[in-house]
Specification:
Two copies of one chain form a homodimer.
Chain A: E1 2-4, H1 6-19, H2 24-39, H3 50-58, E2 69-73, E3 77-81, H4 87-105, E4 107-115, H5 122-130, E5 133-139, E6 145-146, E7 153-155, E8 160-164, E9 171-175, H6 182-190, E10 200-201, E11 207-208, H7 211-217, H8 226-243, H9 248-253, E12 261-269, H10 277-289, H11 305-317, E13 319-321, H12 323-331
Parallel strand pairs in A: 3-4
Antiparallel strand pairs in A: 1-13, 2-3, 4-12, 5-8, 5-12, 6-7, 8-9, 10-11
Helix pairs in contact in A: 1-2, 4-5, 6-7
Chain lengths: ~325, ~325
């Protein structure tokens, strides 16, 4: 494991992207976003996913020369087509547009079809918050989780992001509808440790924290059991219908690799609401931190606070890059 | 247990409400909504909650003569004050207004402060769907769940509703951020049965399905552990800030009883999106129902499908009313 400065990593990613036919502007913005995700400690959707991004460019799933385009506009709601361009650029462009609409109408919504992986969904929640807006967004995914009561994967682990601006660090949840990502399950397997809570089912059909068993059955657990399964289904329907794009089911028909997804971006201008939101939020945080702790030594964190701490460390000491990932990137 | 027709129950509730000073119009609409909730099988937020509603009228928490009023409007976003009026009427009025905005701008949002219990949040999701809109809404609650890592209750079990119109029955999730409501935990306790999955912590700090133990500690479990805790916190912040109203923390300061909450209503006009949403949704449902089942005899249901089935039964055979609840209502 080595630690690479944000500047060096951005430069490296940008060069590699350009090598694979991505123009200067998109290479820069994509590299910047993936480094930002890594700075916040979301390596799975930052540095660790870079080799996969390059392979999707090679396979031509991503057509980086294509820009997203507005299909139709109805005041505060717009439908966009990602034209299979770079997922990060498509998402950033659409959240920018959503914010612009919110400034005008108080709330804005863009539904995006035919787009590619946006990496960390939270990046677009934070983007809205940086602009003084509440950000809500989600994406559908290929089928990777069984519906409640089912054994085979026909729904997605569709992450739902909710973010509100806050001076000391924006408050955000960016969570998949599966209790653990496949990446987290794999990581536990290689480290020969159990998951901290149930993450799926074993071969006997019992709830399990054993990553090996869960990988065997493929039966990962939705958050809140039937509840997360329900949210995943409705979020998929909303995204696919509003964007007039692919549903999870349709993404599954395109093959093993995941591309051409549907996404929803919502922004609400917080400046229009009066009062002092920051004071209200500070008071909530202070109250939370005063809770009686389960473990005396374990501080109660507000959503996304951990990322704020990780960022400080990574800015000072560099972004940790695993040897395996580093070698892979050198070979690209 | 007896079964009472929807007509008779509506009539009974309307008369009782009028006796407690609620005018004809609000009595009718409130009784109708609570009967609709009961028809769908949501008795906890229908008939079973009626005595509590009356007690809140007696205690003057609810001021049924007050109508909600628009504080400010920014195109597609509006802020309303519920003026402590009837919660069901406030919510219905605000979702009606949200739908009206969505018809004009594609999307609409109303943030409501100083309101009372809306009973079943799903009622307003279904209201949007009946009007051809996607409905998203949530409310904050008084502190009734510990934040992740905490022992004492400082966050709410804030339900999040997401609903999309569908001809065969609207698709909807209406779920609290706690795995089980206090009502469900109490019900299991009286029936001397365990909860179907972990619902909280026992006195030794271990995850438990035992309702008696969970009631002892008061440590109910958020859906998805840290994830549901995070959503609850951010939803509370968004509702309280956008409505410039009470946060969960502030609701807790008002005492044991829950009143003067903050709520968010969002509607998106589905008719503006092109394509054939109903065909897309039908295809998703058909795919889900084709899943390999965990229990051969157990059909895979889409979110809210069970309510559609219960409604048919209750319309034919009457709404089931427990003897205890029936006696309580007679005495009001």
């Amino acid at each position: 494991m080595r630690r690479i400065s944000a500047e060096d990593l951005t430069q490296l990613m940008r060069e590699k992207l350009k090598k694979y036919g991505v123009d200067e502007e998109i290479s820069s913005s994509c590299a910047k976003l993936m480094v930002e995700n890594s700075l916040d400690g979301i390596y799975s959707h930052g540095i660790n996913r870079f080799p996969k991004l390059i392979s999707f460019l090679s396979k031509k799933y991503i057509k980086p020369q294509n820009k997203p385009s507005c299909i139709c506009s109805f005041g505060a709601f717009e439908q966009w087509d990602g034209n299979l361009g770079m997922g990060t650029t498509n998402a950033k462009t659409c959240m920018d547009r959503t914010i612009e609409i919110a400034r005008k109408y108080g709330i804005g919504c863009v539904a995006l079809r035919n787009t590619n992986h946006w990496m960390r969904g939270g990046a677009y929640g934070l983007q809205a918050a940086e602009a003084g807006c509440i950000g809500i967004c989600w994406t559908n995914t290929k089928p990777n989780m069984p519906a409640w009561g089912a054994k085979d994967c026909r729904i997605g682990n569709n992450p739902l992001i909710m973010c509100i601006p806050h001076k000391g660090g924006h408050i955000m949840v960016d969570a998949a509808m599966a209790q653990f990502s496949y990446g987290a399950i794999e990581e536990a397997k290689y480290a020969c440790r159990l998951l901290p809570v149930h993450g799926g089912y074993d071969s006997d059909g019992n709830l399990s924290s054993d990553p090996v068993e869960i990988e065997k059955t493929g039966r990962v657990l939705p958050i809140g059991y039937w509840k997360g399964s329900g949210y995943s289904i409705v979020m998929d329907m909303i995204a696919a219908c509003l964007a007039n794009g692919n549903s999870t089911q349709e993404l599954g028909k395109l093959g093993e690799d995941e591309f051409s997804m549907s996404q929803i971006f919502i922004a609400i201008d917080l400046k229009k609401s009066g009062g002092d939101p920051d004071e209200k939020i500070n008071s909530i945080i202070e109250d939370l931190k005063g809770s009686i702790r389960v473990n005396e030594g374990q501080e109660i964190l507000y959503p996304n606070e951990k990322a704020t701490h990780t960022r400080i460390d990574n800015l000072q000491n560099g972004i940790p890059v695993e040897d395996k990932v580093w070698s892979q990137i050198q070979l690209l």
